[in-house]
Amino acid sequence: MLRLGEKIVIVADAFEQSLPIGDYGYLIAYDRNPDNAFDYVIRVPQANRNFYVTAEDIEAEEQLLVAEAERTTHEALIDYALSTHNEKLFHHLMNGEDEETEEAETAPKEGLSQAEFIKQVNLRAWI
Questions:
Q1: What H or E segment, with its residue span, contains residue 105?
Q2: Residue (of 22, 18, 6) closest to 52 by Cα position
Q3: What is the pLDDT of residue 21?
Q4: SS3 (DSSP) at 81
Q5: 9 to each of 49, 58, 65, 95, how far by Cα in Å?
Q6: CA distance 107 to 15
Q7: Sorting pLDDT into bands at 50, 70 and 90, what band is 116?
Q8: Mean pLDDT for the stretch of residues 38-49
């Protein structure tokens, strides 16, 4: 739950209220009416208006900055892996797994007998 007075960014407009997406605002109240679809009341200084919004329409500025920093770091690591021709790092960044774990997963499958292999093929055929 967001705190009162917290700086937020409008990221969506679920109810098509002409919210200024991408603008900053401040959380000024919780809407505790159970019959209402809105969760918060925000103040957008650039629009000089208050808006009722859902929790999905807004995001805390701090969380957006952290997500942007992680994305930028990931892209910089990909650029580094490409420029240094580091194939292992590139595959790790793109797939999220190492080649060694893929080899470890495929190794036990090679040791199957012919009967066990046919049994697994038949089981997957039913799925």
A1: helix 99-110
A2: 18
A3: 93
A4: helix
A5: 15, 6, 11, 31
A6: 52
A7: confident
A8: 94
